[in-house]
């Protein structure tokens, strides 16, 4: 096979030879004229409305007052269905759990708006070493116990005590040498060990980031790192939100709205018009498409660009963030990359990482994997307007270290200089005569990307493979992997959170989210990331200086290999609900698994009387 661009026809041919044609077929079919999606008759009905009928002991709620969404699961089932404590590493706030834990504040990146919620206000001292948080009065947990500053104080001190044993613990423990204290019923005082102007921001819900507040009267008697907080007969999980868990199983999670909610009286938001929220596990692309076409679900996880014409033709009430036009979604805060384990040979060698980068054609990923409905990115953060000055500041560095350059000859040169040689089949053998192999894992977000990346690596001489095994994330978050396709949950308004993704202090944290997955470390970079944390978020001039100095270290090292921007291409139907955010009304991002999704459920209205 000659080197150069790979056409769709060539890719399908070599996909068959390489053995991943079955995986690639559904989206390859859509690279030209999309093939109609086929599912077994009645499958969507059984997964959606029919599943609810099988649950005894819960009240009837009309379909036109029920919001049904799809996300998550393994092999079509929820594996964490009994885990409603989001601090436990094996739990996941993305699968309806986040609806139960209201934040001190929300931040809508698309509206650029801070929305105070459980907290009424917050204030720092002059040097950002002290933070005063005031919560609203008259809030109660669902079991009738008052919500007070003690809950906030307890949560922060548990993070300090348990550190990396719970999700987000490390993020706060690093800056808390002195326990938080309750000043009065509504006031918590936090004393930080260093200037921390982003301490409250880290607690604020934005995209997938934010600190869940624990009910002290429940959690103080439990092991926070293992407690499930699930017993419907006891009223667990308790919550300040308008939602109550009435059923949770591997097949579905059902939350009913309470008749009263403190926030409506306080003027924070309206009581949701949605009376029941159901989350179903993902049964695969074909069923997602068919369920939307038949209005059996209201909103799903993302689908491939090649499936969109089928959805839009099949249901005139189906739509997307961009309506019926590509890219059918918005740029997520989650740019995609190929992660390799920087603590393992040969991936610990920056020249090997750069060689992998030179072997991958990002334009082919956009064209073949995403049917043109995507775009490349040279840096591990989204190109949101507040971040554009940081892209601009690194222009000259990116000319020298072009993270998007497709140049197999440069890759060959780097690996030859390392003492590697190619065998008769054109595949690389290391300096010890062993064939170089890279096994890449991921999940359904990368089903179309994995085969393309593998094909280009093989063309470069790297024996690569791609798979989506159950339970792949746990070893990845703990640093036990070779290659993974994943994204960057970092910055959305200034670069500090992206820099924090590469700090050595956050390596190998089980269940981690905004952590150092690459296992790359550099002491000078760590200092710059800390300096960024202690710099005011509105001091753009200083942050640009820190960012450029950090990129002078990061770019030559290339801890992970940049690919494309992430897009959320999430279909929904307006048969039962209106008021979803979109490009014409971007009041927040629409992903139902993000911590900001309660803003959507407080906003949508019934389409039917």
Secondary structure topology:
Elements: H1 8-18, H2 21-28, H3 43-47, H4 49-53, E1 66-70, E2 105-108, E3 113-116, E4 119-124, E5 130-135, H5 149-162, H6 169-173, E6 181-184, E7 187-191, H7 199-203, H8 216-219, E8 243-248, E9 253-257, H9 262-266, E10 276-280, H10 285-293, H11 308-314, E11 318-319, E12 330-331, E13 336-340, H12 350-359, H13 362-369, H14 388-393, H15 395-400, H16 408-417, E14 421-422, E15 428-429, E16 437-441, H17 449-460, E17 463-467, H18 473-477, E18 483-487, H19 496-500, H20 523-533, H21 540-557, E19 560-562, E20 567-568, E21 572-573, E22 577-578, H22 598-601, E23 605-606
Parallel strand pairs: 1-10, 16-17, 16-18
Antiparallel strand pairs: 2-3, 4-5, 5-7, 6-7, 8-9, 9-10, 11-21, 12-20, 13-18, 13-19, 14-15, 22-23
Helix pairs in contact: 1-2, 10-11, 12-16, 20-21
Q: Mind explaining what this structure looks like?
A:
The chain has 609 residues and is of the alpha+beta class. It folds into three domains: 8-29 and 331-567, Dipeptide-binding Protein, Domain 3 (Dipeptide-binding Protein, domain 3); 66-100 and 223-330 and 569-606, D-Maltodextrin-Binding Protein, domain 2 (3-Layer(aba) Sandwich), CATH 3.40.190.10; 105-204, Dipeptide-binding Protein, Domain 1 (Dipeptide-binding Protein, domain 1, Alpha-Beta Complex), CATH 3.90.76. It is 28% helix and 15% strand. It is built from 22 helices and 23 strands. It has a five-stranded mixed β-sheet. α1 packs antiparallel against α2. The radius of gyration is 24 Å and the shape is globular. The protein starts with 7 loop residues before the first helix and ends with a strand.
């Amino acid at each position: 096979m000659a080197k150069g661009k790979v056409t769709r026809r060539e890719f399908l041919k070599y996909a068959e030879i390489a053995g991943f044609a079955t995986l690639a077929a559904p989206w390859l079919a859509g690279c030209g004229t999309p093939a109609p999606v086929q599912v077994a008759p009645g499958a969507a009905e059984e997964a959606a409305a029919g599943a609810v009928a099988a649950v005894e002991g819960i009240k009837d709620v009309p379909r036109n007052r029920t919001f049904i969404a799809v996300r998550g699961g393994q092999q079509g089932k929820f594996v964490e269905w009994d885990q409603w404590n989001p601090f436990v590493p094996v739990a996941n706030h993305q699968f309806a759990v986040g609806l139960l834990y209201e934040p001190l504040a929300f931040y809508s990146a698309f509206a650029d708006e801070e929305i105070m919620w459980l907290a009424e206000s917050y204030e720092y001292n002059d040097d950002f070493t002290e933070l005063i948080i005031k919560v609203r009065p008259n809030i109660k947990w669902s079991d009738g116990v008052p919500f007070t500053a003690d809950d906030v104080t307890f949560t922060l001190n548990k993070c300090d005590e348990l550190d990396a044993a719970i999700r987000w613990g490390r993020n706060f423990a690093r800056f808390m040498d002195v326990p938080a204290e309750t000043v009065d019923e509504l006031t918590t005082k936090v004393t930080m060990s260093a200037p921390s102007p982003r301490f409250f921001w880290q607690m604020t819900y934005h995209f997938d980031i934010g600190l869940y507040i624990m009910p002290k009267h429940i959690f103080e008697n439990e092991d926070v790192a293992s407690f499930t907080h699930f017993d419907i007969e006891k009223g667990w999980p308790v919550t300040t939100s308008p939602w109550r868990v009435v059923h949770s199983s591997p097949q579905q999670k059902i939350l009913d709205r309470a008749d009263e909610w403190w926030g409506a009286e306080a003027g924070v938001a309206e009581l949701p018009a949605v009376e029941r929220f159901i989350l179903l596990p993902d049964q695969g692309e074909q069923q997602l498409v068919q369920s939307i076409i038949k209005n059996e679900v209201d909103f799903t996880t993302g689908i491939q660009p090649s499936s969109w014409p089928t959805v839009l033709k099949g249901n005139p009430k189906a739509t997307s963030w961009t309506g019926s036009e590509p890219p059918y979604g918005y740029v997520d805060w989650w740019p995609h990359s190929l992660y390799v384990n920087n603590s393992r040979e040969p991936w610990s060698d920056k020249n090997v990482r750069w060689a992998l980068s030179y072997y991958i054609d990002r334009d082919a990923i956009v064209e073949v994997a995403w049917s043109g409905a995507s775009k490349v990115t040279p840096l591990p953060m989204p190109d949101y307007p507040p971040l554009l000055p940081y892209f601009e500041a690194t222009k000259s560095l990116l000319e020298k270290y072009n993270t998007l350059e497709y140049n197999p000859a440069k890759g060959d040169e780097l690996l030859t200089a390392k003492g590697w040689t190619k065998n008769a089949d054109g595949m690389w053998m290391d300096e010890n005569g062993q064939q170089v192999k890279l096994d890449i894992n991921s999940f359904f977000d990368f089903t179309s990307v994995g085969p393309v990346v593998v094909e280009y690596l093989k063309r470069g001489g790297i024996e690569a493979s791609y798979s989506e095994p159950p339970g792949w994330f746990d070893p990845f978050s703990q640093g036990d992997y070779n290659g993974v396709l994943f994204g960057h949950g970092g910055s959305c308004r200034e670069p500090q959170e992206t820099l924090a993704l590469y700090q050595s202090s956050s390596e190998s944290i089980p269940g981690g989210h905004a952590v150092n997955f690459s296992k790359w470390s550099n002491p000078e970079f760590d200092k710059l990331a800390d300096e960024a944390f202690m710099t005011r978020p509105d001091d753009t001039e200083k942050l640009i200086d820190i960012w450029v100095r950090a990129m002078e270290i990061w770019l030559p090292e290339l801890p992970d290999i940049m690919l494309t921007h992430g897009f959320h291409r999430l279909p929904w139907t307006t048969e039962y609900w209106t008021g979803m955010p979109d490009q014409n009304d971007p009041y927040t991002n629409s992903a139902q698994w993000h911590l900001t999704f309660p803003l959507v459920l407080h906003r949508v209205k019934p389409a039917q009387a």
